[in-house]
Amino acid sequence: MTTLGCQQTEGGQGTPGTHSPARPSAHATTATSARSPSAVPPHRTAAAAPPRTIPSVRDFAAASGPGWRPGDDSRVVADLEGPLADEARLIAAELGLRTTSGPARRGDLCLGLAPKESGGGEAYTLKVAGGRARITGPAEAGVFYGTRTVKQALRSGGRLPEGVIHDRPGRAQRGLNLDIARKFYSVGWIEARMREMADLKLNQLALHFSDDQGFRIQSTSHPEIVSTPHLTKDQVRQIVALGQRLHITVIPEIDSPGHLGAVIRAHPQLQLRNAGGTTFQGSVDISHPAAARIVDDLMREYAPLFPGRWWHLGADEYLALTVKDPQASFPKLAAAAKREYGPSARVQDLVTGWLNDRARLARQLGKRPKAWNDGFFAGGVVQPAKNIEVEYWTGRLKETARQPEEYLKEGREVVNLNDSFLYYVLGQPGGFTYPTGERIYEDWSPAVLRGSTPVADKSLTGPDRILGARFAIWGDRPEAQTPAQVAQGIRLPLAALAQRVWDPGKPPLSWSDFTRLAERLGV
């Protein structure tokens, strides 16, 4: 196997490759020194135990030997003009080492690409032998995760054990959902959480930046809707750039056609009203052409700002569908549905048409659309497009409640945001309680989409059907906790999620041992 960028001396193999220029250099702002005064002595030891990390490594073949820890002359070796330059500089700064290109020698940590390795782009191999450590993977993301294992193993045990680690995620999507519309968080706070996420091998940050309480990103197409405080576009670019260095995709969410109160304040003519003139908070009149026009303007404006793969359309809690008879209560919507989709169409068909139209635009903009599960209705003349990912959060809304199996049996791909386990709702309104890491660790898995019972049909719960999970912070009562309290409150739940979504098996540690390890690692 050719290992690009990890040439070795003393019988090592591999040749440095020629690569495109690296991404902007990473800067370690929370460096953790695991450097020892001298290299590990060359005596032989018994076969070692796996390193203690969060998430735990999935496959470790132990060997006899002293292992590896950085010494005075240790270096991080990589092609510093290639795609692993950021990864090399970050781990070097964290360990207090210098970087270099060229052959690796005893005592070094070497990073290289091995395109033919199996396991996908987030997999990696970490080999400790001959007095050196080597991380390889098919793509940069996997090598980066290997450096997270190195960092944690040195902090938890002082050295890397002799042997070979083969590691890879059990689910492709793993991350955090952050509501900055109801409760604003600073760039520094967001970036601190991203660094913590990266150490846990989480790879998505979804930003919910538009809701009834505020619209939190600068806009040139519709500046009239923007709230104070908000993120400037340069600040968003800063967050996205950090995400690229940490292999975290930042996903934008403009929730519609509900949760648009900030837009309605600037455009009151779009307010949804029933036949009696009663207003419905946050919901727009989707029969009004300007409603779609504004949302589409914003999508087109922000698509270049968020270069990642996904776009979240929201689609939850549209209040026109929470009444007993939407057709009678909203005759204007009912008439629009019939005009657009035929005499049998109902209000829910008009709402589904709205979702499909926004999903079509997202795809035109190069994005894969996501939407909350209660925006996918059973029956009807119009069906939601099959290539919209279902973000399953609840079955508690009686008007739109559907079992997770229904979406999976329709052939849809689902992401788990089970509100019984993964919702951190400030102030704990509406029966919500702050989730605990222990409950996630002991009782939850990606297959537990609703309540506490996993989907029974295991043919529906593989990583190709349930794509992963995110932990969600919602600011319903924004003053209930300070940003520092939120950061502390989510620490163990996020670590527990990282373990359960990386490795599908039973966690190897007891909860008490896991919490002690998390404390030692600082995650």
TrEMBL record:
InterPro entries, alphabetized: Beta_hexosaminidase_sua/sub (IPR025705), GH (IPR017853), GH20_Enzymes (IPR052764), Glyco_hydro_20_cat (IPR015883), Hex-like_dom2 (IPR029018), HEX_bac_N (IPR015882)
Source domain of life: Bacteria
SUPFAM superfamilies (UniProt xref): (Trans)glycosidases, beta-N-acetylhexosaminidase-like domain
Alphabetic keyword roster: Glycosidase, Hydrolase
Xref: Pfam families: Glyco_hydro_20 (PF00728), Glyco_hydro_20b (PF02838)
Positions of transmembrane segments: none
Ranges of residues in domain Glycoside hydrolase family 20 catalytic: 174-504
Active site: E317
GO molecular function list: beta-N-acetylhexosaminidase activity
Beta-hexosaminidase bacterial type N-terminal domain span: 51-167
Single GO biological process annotation from the record: carbohydrate metabolic process
Stretch list, region Disordered: 1-54
Protein family per UniProt: Belongs to the glycosyl hydrolase 20 family.
Protein name: Family 20 glycosylhydrolase
UniProt organism field: Streptomyces rhizosphaericus
